[in-house]
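Question thread 4412

I'm putting together a teaching handout and wanted feedback from people who do this every day. The idea is simple: show students a protein as raw sequence, then show them the structure tokens that encode its fold, then repeat with a second protein so they can compare. Below is the first pair exactly as I plan to print it.
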Amino acid sequence: MKTLTEPTAKAEIISRIAQLAPDARRRWGKMDVHQMVCHLCDSHLLVMGEMTAADKSNVITRSVIRIIALRVPITWPKGASTVPELDQAAGGGTRPAIFEADRARLIELIHRFTAPKRDFSFAHHPMFAAMSEWEWMRWAYLHADHHLRQFGL
């Protein structure tokens, strides 16, 4: 199971992000490629406690859904909704600015997120609540992979 603590998995995700083009067309969902980049940035900022989102967790999402999402070797379903605070297509989250700068920011956030010495503590996930470091690194890999596949990468 790939996680962002594995150098090859982290390099894979960063390489795929670097390949994103501002005119990439989505295969599903509502966000355009620039909104998706900002969504991934905001997701990392949320995890690092620099953004907030309402707690939408319940006993099912904290246990069953979290286990399936992080530990069952399946791709995440297309079209799953996000929390309003991170839904760029619906007006939430950070507004796209300059594509290249926002893409570079995402890569910087991934490096910060995976740094051996962190300058943050992991916050709670809006659906999965408190997670271990392994779960956060697995989530980050799967979340990025999901959205990169959305744009053909």
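The second pair follows. I'd like the answer to focus on this one:
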Amino acid sequence: MQPTSNERRSRRSDDVMTALHYQLAFARHEGGFDALVLADSAGCLVAGAGAWPTCEMLAACAPLFAEPPSPSVEFALRDQSNDVAIEKLTIDGSEVLLCARGGRSGNVPGLAMARAASGCRRILGVPA
């Protein structure tokens, strides 16, 4: 009989990009998001889960969602920003943005974002 394991992850990868995708896909499912992305501070997509065009658009807009927008940017994004959650992470001294669109009501999206942030830090080798 094999010892039982406390391992929760069912899909794993030693490849960083694949591991990030698995992490984001799980959190996307858990939070009920349309898309969940990790983007750099310039809006370039690092990794994502969801429809690819949606991920690219979400990553491109993430820096605009992360900072208090100017009135013209706020006007342009007014329909999208209500449905977006964003969390800033520091990875190896650089800021990256974890950004989700959609999601169920209640605390599930917040918990899914927190778990995704923790997973991204772990995968990228950053202490929590």
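Top answer:
Good format. For the second protein you could add a caption like this: The first strand starts at residue 33 and ends at 40. The CA atoms of residues 31 and 108 lie 6 Å apart.
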